[in-house]
Write a structure and sequence with these properties.
Shape: globular
CATH topology: Rossmann fold
Number of domains: 1
Number of strands: 7
Number of helices: 7
Structural class: alpha/beta
Order of helices and strands: EHEEHEHEHEHEHH
CATH superfamily: HUPs
Helix content: 25-40%
Radius of gyration: 17 Å
Strand content: 15-25%
Length: 197
């Protein structure tokens, strides 16, 4: 499959992959071009360790596309997170408190089971670069195989946040660097507490 990232207002091209059609080209849309679409409930899962301005950008923009958005913090037993599950949930609740239609929750187990329990049929995932696509596409197809009702929608971050990741933020903070340009203000203070040196 050829991956082509273009600026387009065509929502159906992304859903074409999500719903099982097999186009020769995948076009990734930029949601700010779409306006509100009233697309029921979506789940935005992730570890958010910590939440970055890139995450917050996606949350703000996607909140205008869906009736409600659940930001779901994963309890991944394989990874050893910097922040506890409770800390990550609390940080997200604080930085999203002013965004209408957004809830923060946590879960463990299969994402499709969690989505079903919340009455959601859409899983939202961010694509920062082409390098993200192979893994995300594999996960989307696997989730659809487990539950064909649950569709995955990909969103591009704003250009200014396209390079950001939580792992980069943790590394900068651990080495005493300034993370102010990369994370919300409350998270800056939490990182300073984790790396007081």
């Amino acid at each position: 499959m050829t991956v082509s990232i273009q600026r387009t207002g065509c929502y159906a091209l992304v859903l074409g992959v999500c719903l099982g059609r097999k186009p020769d080209c995948l076009t990734v849309w930029y949601p700010e071009e779409l306006g509100g679409t009233g697309l029921t409930k979506a789940i935005y899962p992730g570890s958010f360790d910590p939440v970055t301005l890139g995450h917050l950008d996606l949350i703000r923009r996607s909140s205008t596309l869906f009736d409600s958005l659940v930001v779901a913090v994963t309890n991944n037993r394989v990874k050893q997170p910097l922040f506890t599950l409770e800390e990550r949930v609390a940080m997200l609740q604080e930085v999203t408190a002013d965004i209408e239609g957004v809830q923060v929750d946590s879960f463990s187990g299969l994402l499709v089971d969690y989505a079903r329990s919340k009455g959601a049929q859409i899983v939202l995932r961010g694509l920062r670069a082409i390098s993200d696509f192979e893994y995300e596409f594999q996960m989307a197809l696997t989730n659809r195989k487990i539950d064909p009702v649950v569709n995955t929608v990909f969103m591009m971050p704003s250009e200014e946040f396209s390079y950001l990741s939580s792992s980069i933020i943790r590394e900068i903070a651990s080495l005493g660097g300034d993370v102010t340009p990369f994370v919300p203000a409350p998270v800056v203070e939490k990182l300073r507490q984790k790396f007081p040196g």
